[in-house]
Amino acid sequence: MTRAQRVLPVLLVLVLASAIAVVYSRHLNRAAFAELQRLQQQRDEINIERGRLQLEQSTFATHSKIEQLARDRLGMVLPAPDGIKMVKP
Fold this sequence. Notes:
This protein is mostly helical. About 80% of the residues lie in helices and about 0% in strands. The chain has one domain.
């Protein structure tokens, strides 16, 4: 058996192993990229929800909204000027 006949099967096995490694590496890369896209979409949805909640919070924090809730839910009204008494400390 010549030297070329001994080296050829070893090279063939190494080439096949290299090809399998490339395919596996590409598979892992695609899976990681798909996960990245899913996480970016989730981040975008969370940012949209955060913006909505901040807008809602600023709406509820306005004086007119608090006054309206006090009138509607608690039945509160502003007292007449003669019903206001000043208390000195």
